Amino acid sequence: MLLAACGSDDDSKDSSPTTTAATGASTTAATATTAAGTTESSAAQPTESSAAPTESSAAPAAAVKRKQGGEMTVGVLYDAFGLDPVKMIGSVTDGWLAGAAYDTLIRRKADGTLEPWLAESFDTKDNQTWTFKLRSGVTFHDGTPLNAEAVKINLERHMDPANASRSLATAANVESVTAVDELTVDVKLKFPWAAFPQGAISVFTTIASPKAIADGTLAKMPVGTGPYKFVEWVPGDHMTFEPNKDYWGEGPYLDKLTFRVMLDSGVRYTSVEKGEIQVGQSIAVNQLAEANKSDKIHSTQTHGGSMAIFPLNNTVPGLDDARVRQAMSYALDRDVLNDVGYQGAATPNASLWAEGAPFYDDSIEWADNDMAKAQELIKEYEAEKGELTIEFMCYSDPERQKIAEVAMSMWEEAGLTINSKQVQNNQMIVDTYTGNYQVSCAAMGSELSDPDAWFNWFRTGSGTNWAKISNPELDDLLMKGRISAADADRQDAYSKAAAILAREVPVVRTLGTPWGWVAQKNVIATTLPLADFDVSGLAYTE
Amino acid sequence: MRLLRQRFLRLLPVLLIVTFATFAMVRLLPGDPARAFLGPDAPQEQVDRLTQDMGLNDNAVVGYGKWIGKVFTGDLGSSYRTGQSVADALGQRFPVSLELMIFAQIFALVLAIPIGVFTAYRSGGVLDRMWGASAFAIMAVPSFVLGLLLIYVFPVKLDWLQISGFTRLTEDLAGNLRSLVLPGITLGLLQVAIYSRILRSDMIATLQEDYVMMARAKGLSTSRILLGHALRPSSFSLLTLAGLNIGQLLSGAVIVEYMFSLPGVGLLMVESIAAKELMMLQGAILVIVVGYVLVNLLVDVLYAVLDPRIRQAGARG
Questions:
Q1: C-alpha to C-alpha distance for A229 and A242, rounded to whole angstroms
Q2: Do B156 and A429 touch (CB under 8 A)?
Q3: Which residues of A touch B31 (CB under 8 A)?
Q4: Cβ of B145 under 8 Å from any chain A Cβ?
Q5: Which residues pair with A155 in a beta bridge?
Q6: DSSP strands (E only) in A407-457
Q7: If phi over 0 gives left and psi between -120 and 50 gives alpha, with beta otherwise, what is residue B168?
Q8: Which of A295-298's residues contact partners 24+ apart within 8 Å by CB, and which partners?
Q9: Per residue in A391-422, pLDDT tens?
Q10: What is the pLDDT of residues B64-83, one digit of tens each?
Q11: Residues A356 and A451: beta-carbon distance below 8 Å
């Protein structure tokens, strides 16, 4: 299931490919696609890691010894979209591949908190200027030293609109980048932003060699500071890496790491079972449970993955009335959607955040499962304004379609008339961004993210404000939440913002879709939140 | 020879017309290639500039002229996403499809010819009727179902062969064959059914001819009659079909390529459509069209080889 749409910031994860390419689970359009990933804005804070008992997370991993040596093949869902950080869309596949060759300045730990990674430390006095101290003695794969100037070049690349970086939305908040000394970089933002580190993780702070940038060879050959060095890329087939012997951190453990493009989830799963590959990315939910019963393989599943939503174009007649939007949320029985789409493995949730998210306020009530209420609201609306017909656009991924069909029948039961329109995934993403739709299907961020993420999703004028909601009170609250330093102020702002969102229902939230991968029992693979992957620690057990 | 020359001269206009038609149609695909590449957040001026660079502002005729001009110099353009030249990409992916197609065809013919001959000879018998039913059953099964079944039976249950991936011929011959077996059978099984039925019906007709009765009267052995005298005249439909199928199998094996993770031309075209890589798509179509036309030419020549009547007509005409 590919959750479409990308958000503004760097962290993007897609659940499943659907995009591109034709056939297969996804529609033709789906698999092939390189484009389309879902982006998460802001890191999730404590993201609960997994349900899989055999998953090796930080603590147990310390007890299990990693073997030095061995070759491993990872089956990935898509091919990379290009390995130049400026071109990377931050999808899961990008993340895994990039994690081999590149490092980011900051990284999330398994428990969801942030740790300095390529940077030795990061700090701020006023939430507006962030100082990163880099590790010393680190070199890129081509021998160029890592220094403040290199980081500056990389960040400024994202900021330059001519490069059309996919991280432009984050980069646009940066006022200037200064190399204070050899190993210190000051990033000055346009305004104080307490959650900047969460937003800055991943693609935005992926650091590539300035020499490779200058040579213009990055797109074909990534050169970073990462645990593995790029060897070859056969587009559409595989990408191979060899170990970076001078890696500054722990690892690399493998003698050869290959990422193979295997479009079909079932084939990935079977291949891991048979041992043809050792790790399979993005496995369908119903197969993950099976994996844990097997004695040859294990799986991991993270919740707090992407939020599946139906964006509503708030500017379209009918959908501009809050009653209609609320009704659409009340009409949905999310447990049924969960059963139909994910065999009960997802988390039904009507709200845009959940227990575990920073500043979570459980006193806010969100419109959920009340068909009578939905029908009442629609009747009220239609008495005033007449019958309403709405166009629903979704891409033809089988799982999505199943959920979409059930949702449509629920909306019709509420009294609306729905016309369905199937489009190709790429087209749907573009249409959703440009507002050329009425109701769409997509995914956004994580329910466990810092609500600072709402800044990009719901503020007037934001590029990722698909719902086109424009509520001045909400705008002020989101700005206040972003720039305030004191937690109490941020809590106040976000509680009030949540109340507005619950009332206005700019998008209808349905489920939290789980992520998963499978691996052979003798593979140690640490899952980081939001389905990220610790490539440097990837190894076999002793 | 004259025949060949005639046919060859007709090749060029056909190629030009077909490639122009596909060029124009590809332009009509929904979606904006520049925006697909730059992403939804990119500023409009950026998108406009790239659209200009991609040559999408020219009308179809001008665009085609520019493209075909470059083709003659060997420049098929390159992928925006990976920077790889289209020629390189095709060079990597075409052999995969080619090998798969050859394997499937050989598999199909090796099975279909004996079955077709036998069921024609013993038409109406038990085996013929059993095969008739089986053939229809095979034709009814979609290729991905068959593929999944084969994956389940062979690599998973019996531990033979591999599930997916493609080993290049240049790397390892045995590995290459191994990676082709399952996909080749998936593709080829359907053709076995079709080819055998076609051969059977033509052969039944041939076996009723006078000269066959004459050969039998002369005392020739059954196998001599079947293979030496009756097979050749009965093979024209089969030949035509197999020839047409070459093009079809090359570009239409997408589902099999997808399932078995074979980086072939069919998948390439589908990916290019989705990613709006028009240059890549054009290049792939060009190669397939050229292939198709050449194969048709070959089939025509083979007709002449197989059927002396055509050879003589050519000589006279």
A1: 5
A2: no
A3: 424, 426-427, 430
A4: no
A5: none
A6: 417-423, 439-440, 442-444
A7: beta
A8: A295/A521, A296/A520, A296/A521, A297/A272, A297/A273, A297/A518, A297/A519, A297/A520, A297/A521, A298/A52, A298/A54, A298/A55, A298/A518, A298/A519, A298/A521
A9: 999 877 777 788 899 999 999 999 999 999 88
A10: 888 888 888 888 888 877 77
A11: no
Task: Calculate how close chain B gets to A475, using CA atoms only, in Å.
Answer: 20
Q: How far is A336 from chain B (nearest CA, A)?
A: 29
- Residues in chain B, pLDDT under 70: 1, 3, 40-41, 314-317
Res. A61 pLDDT band, cuts 50 70 90: very low
CB contacts of B280 in chain A (<8 Å) are none
Which residues in chain A (111-130) have CB-CB distances under 8 A to chain B? none
A73 or A218: whose pLDDT is higher?
A73
Neighboring chain B residues of A82 at a CB cutoff of 8 Å: 81-82
B90 touches chain A (CB under 8 A): no
Task: Kindly state the tokens that stand for A120.
Answer: 């030795």
- Counted across chains A and B, CB pairs separated by less than 8 A come out at 155
Task: Select from A350, A322, A465, A364 the least CA-distant residue to A407.
Answer: A350
Q: Which residues of A touch B39 (CB under 8 A)?
A: 6, 35, 89, 164, 166
Amino acid at A173: N
Q: Do B276 and A426 touch (CB under 8 A)?
A: yes
Angle at alpha carbon of residue A8, lines to A7 and A13, rounded to 5° = 45
DSSP class of residue B93?
Answer: H
Confidence of residue A303 (pLDDT cuts 50, 70, 90): low
**Whose structure tokens read 């493998």?**
A254
- Going by C-alpha positions, the residue among B202, B187, B174 that lies closest to residue B105 is B187
Average pLDDT, integer, range A342-356: 85
Return left, alpha or beta for B167; rule: phi > 0 is left, psi -120 to 50 is alpha, else beta: beta
CA dist A227 and A248 (Å) reads 8
Interface of B with A in 172-211 (CB under 8 A): none
Nearest chain A residue to B168 by CA distance is A237
